[in-house]
Design a protein that fits this description.
- It is a multi-pass membrane protein.
- The chain crosses the membrane at residues 41-60, 72-92, 98-115, 127-149, 155-174, 204-230, 242-263, 270-288, 294-314, 326-345, 357-378.
- Residues 3-383 form the Major facilitator superfamily (MFS) profile domain.
- Keywords: Cell membrane, Membrane, Transmembrane, Transmembrane helix, Transport.
- Belongs to the major facilitator superfamily. Bcr/CmlA family.
- By secondary structure, the protein is mainly alpha-helical.
- It has one domain: Growth Hormone, Chain: A, CATH 1.20.1250.20.
- 81% of the residues lie in helices and 0% in strands.
- It has 18 helices and no strands.
Length: 387
């Protein structure tokens, strides 16, 4: 299996294990007589577990190699899928999702680490952009596939389908040639101490903190989208899948544009343009209030587009700040990214806000303004240090 295709499959694991399941949330609320915050625990606990286990898989791959960690992670994901499919209550489903998340964390952490191992410089940025083009196909197709299975089969088949698709990733992991990189040494304590080294890398930590808040509005949309479209606007699961897929298409177009612009254009300028666009999308959501499907769709599409445009550049900037401990560095930035995402997903589940659309807009404004200030400051500081 080509390395690019394997990296794409690995990066798709988080979307694969969430977006296909989203149309089933209202169904599970009805079947098990549970509230939306209770149902969303299956999302929030998944992302929380996923984020924490990233911190384990990353440094383990630095110590023992990418291939063994990846192989066992995908196997565990498949087991988790089977457990989810057999769940009889929200408690059982949440526990099964924890197993699933443990395996998915290995795939997600190592997709970024392998990109650093296998590619360099502008080529790596282009690969990340191309992956960013393909990955949104998962949230475009997955909710529609999930809606189809809800209509003609059962919500349990959603997880069976996820496990079946993961078999392709397992095949690629078994065929992967272990890349060469400088491995860490020592026992478990020594491996864990690599995070201390990373925390002392000020440029790495600064960029990580700046960039991980950017997609908070998009994450909150993922958690609330089925409630907004199906419950709020009265759409069917199939129609919801089409509307949700539009946002994935916008993100894909953003990443495709990034792959073109990153050749011959300043990545700094592209990043600032992305942040300004994200701010405009958030303001648009606040102004319209997402009162109708179209008034919600348009600003949310803008938010998705600019998140897609910025992500390959931001992740490449983070990777450029490290030469060793790449697995741990990839795990830590992905951990921060998904942890804040999980917080945003749970917060929007509660009835604390005048509207969920307004909350998405507010997070998008914050997620663009704060990184803009941080990026400008860090860029100027690095230019001064280079003189």
């Amino acid at each position: 299996m080509p390395n690019f295709l394997l990296l794409t499959l690995l990066a798709a694991f988080p979307a694969l294990s969430t977006d296909m399941y989203l149309p089933a949330i209202p169904t599970l609320q009805e079947i098990w007589n549970i509230s939306l915050p209770e149902a969303n625990l299956s999302l929030v606990v998944y992302f929380g577990t996923f984020s924490l286990l990233l911190l384990v898989h990353g440094p383990l791959s630095d110590r023992y190699g990418r291939k063994p960690v990846l192989r066992w992670g995908i196997l565990l994901f498949i087991v988790g899928c089977l457990l989810c499919a057999s769940a009889g209550s929200i408690t059982m489903l949440v526990l099964a999702r924890m197993v699933q998340a443990t395996g998915a964390a290995a795939a997600s952490a190592l997709s970024l680490a392998l990109a650093k191992d296998l590619y360099e410089g502008q080529e790596r940025q282009k690969i990340l952009a191309y992956i960013g083009v393909i990955i949104p196909l998962c949230p475009m197709v997955a909710p529609m596939l999930g809606g189809f299975m809800l209509k003609y089969l059962s919500w349990r088949w959603i997880f069976i389908c996820q496990g079946t698709l993961a078999l392709a990733g397992l095949y690629g992991a078994l065929r992967l040639k272990e890349p060469e990189f400088e491995r860490t040494r020592g026992g478990i304590l020594s491996v864990a101490q690599r995070y201390v080294v990373l925390l002392k890398n000020r440029s790495y930590i600064s960029y990580t903190l700046a960039f991980c808040i950017m997609p908070a509005g998009f994450f909150s949309f993922v958690a609330a989208s089925s409630n907004i479209y199906i419950v709020g606007f009265g759409m069917s699961a199939e129609t919801y899948g089409l509307y949700f897929g539009f946002n994935a298409l916008c993100m894909m177009i953003g990443s495709l544009l990034c792959s073109r612009l990153c050749v011959g254009h300043s990545t700094y300028a592209i990043l600032l343009f992305s942040l300004v666009g994200l701010l405009a999308g958030g303001v648009g959501m606040l102004v319209t209030g997402g009162a109708t499907p179209m008034l919600f769709l348009v600003p949310m599409g803008a938010i998705s587009f600019f998140v897609g445009l910025s992500r390959p550049i931001s992740m490449n900037i983070v990777l450029e700040q490290v030469e060793k401990d790449v697995g741990a560095a990839s795990a830590l930035v992905t951990f921060a990214f998904f942890l804040l995402g999980a917080i945003a997903m749970e917060l929007i589940s509660f009835d604390w806000w005048p509207s969920k659309a307004m909350f998405i807009g507010m997070l998008s404004v914050i997620g663009s303004a704060l990184p803009f200030v941080a990026v400008v400051y860090l860029h100027r500081q690095q230019k001064r240090e280079a003189r």
